[in-house]
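Sequence in, structure out. Go.
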Amino acid sequence: MGKKKETGSKEHKTDKMKIEECTEKRLRALEPNAVKTKVTNTVEEVQDDYITAYQNRLATHMDELKWLYYELYRSNEQSFQYFLSLLDKYARERSPELRALDQERMRKPQWFKGNNLIGVLLYTNCFGKDLKGVEKRIPYLKECGFNYMHLMPILESPKEKSDGGYAVSNFHKVQPELGTMDDLKSLCSVCHEEGISVCLDFVMNHCSEEHEWVKRAKNGEQEFQDRFFMFNDWGLPNEFERTVPQVFPESAPGNFTYCEEAKKVVMTTFYPYQWDLNYGNPTVLNDMLENMLFLCNQGADVFRLDAVPYIWKKLGTNCRNLPEVHTLVRIFRMAMEIVAPGVLLLGEVVMEPQKVVPYFGSLEKPQCHMLYNVTTMASTWHTVATQDTRLMQHQLGQVFALPKDMVFLNYLRCHDDIGWGLDYAFLEQFSITEIPHKAFLNAYFRGFTEDSDARGELYNDDPVRGDARLCGTTASLCGLEAAAYEKDEHKIKEALQLDLMLHAFLLSQSGIPVLYSGDEIGQENDYSYHEDDIKKVDSRYLHRGNFPWEKAEKRKKKGSIEEKIFTGLKELEDLRRKHKAFSTMADTWIIDTKNIHVLAFGRYYEGEKILCFYNFARSEQVAYVSEVEDYVDLLSGKSCKARDLVLPVHGFLWLKTSFV
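Output:
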């Protein structure tokens, strides 16, 4: 009896040591000068405190949870009780390491809203071959200054019908060639020790036709057919088609597919091999929540909610952004706050601003912690091509007017294409109309205009509608690929300046800047995908090439293209972290430069004011401003006045003054 007690005591001490150890390492990584507070509670007290805190969080949300759940599912008490059992199960199974992380973030609920997080988005196979390889490369990520890592889809998915990993066949398994769930857990643990947060994709709208649920539905099991939208004939599907837009009218027309095995018609909004989940069935919500909580306990810090606007379907609507979608997101948000309060939800809502903002929810009833800033990304490349900043000023003005607690994830390029969903109603006043303008932008970024050295390719070209989207890496779209090929030093210099200017603009926006892996060394397009039978049908693989480690080594060679980009970006990142005016909580405003080629805005926070100027023209420009304070140029360290500023081709300035 005594021996058992001793063994149990050792196990408890190990758990307590883990909590203390993890907290100390995290503090050291995030705040090197922080003094660790000694944990004096006994392990039993720590355990009891944790369970009590979990139960208190559950009690806080219980009334709203029950109300929303009953509203969606007609007071289905049995399903709701199972839902609650999932919360209890995964809260109690959460590891000491993750509990410590939750506690740390609860003490600092604004931890993701400052100016400290700088992210990178990468493909595991391209960057490190597998999860163990990514873990070995963490020192490189830290050298880059990244402390937020978005791993592109890593869950099991059929190779030939994966949609880049967004057709998940098993939410509890990693794609075999990438490793195992234990490898993911190990990677997340090491990242936490190094102060790096990990983001995973969570595909909410659909699953692969290879998923067990689909297989059993095809075999005629009614329980599993009820998890999808399956019809005996084309009557109702045809009624849906009257009001539901097509996502990929060129490559995957229609929203339904006939399943020969089941002899039924199935809703497949994106691709025929991705079956839409029926969230009208509480079993789907419960099982998808369990999938998320399972991944949560592997160590994920952020979940990117893929295709979230599509998850509720209703006949006679466009099946987008329905009220029930927001109810579901709110339920997921409360589940996270109860089980894992340190975990964030990132909404992927690729739509115009007025449809994006509601996904933040309200101050009293929040939904997503963060949202993608898709509009600014697309408007940035429009501004590069047109050299006209008026749309960008209009766009940023809308963003600046939003409450400061709305956090956007900002980026220049990502795994996806660039869709030209611009504000054409605004652009019409300048005689710019949608179809011709899209044609111009696509021509410019393919290098088909006289003044462009950009290199990109079309994605989902639709000649009938005159519509297409665009692919390419940041460096290639900035003209660096063409300039390097021509060995034209003047062009190389201008392309480098454009690349750095765009990243400076990215890093000066409120929110979390995320770089696409390879951008820190100027990675160019990878045309080898044309020779791959699986990849060649998807031009997005143009910018999904393997990470060029040989090219990365050149970052150490003084004067090389790679070194100039790498050190330039690192300097900008360091300045962003050093100056509090770059905080998400800063006041921001547009500055009128009286020059449509120069974008400028100000940032103010706690006595510090920074003015940012960006010349989008391919010629020297003047920003006609007249600020009264004395400033310091953050890049040069020199004192200056903010009056009639001359900016070289694609030049930029960060000017700072202080009122403290």
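Check: The first strand starts at residue 119 and ends at 122. The radius of gyration is 26 Å.
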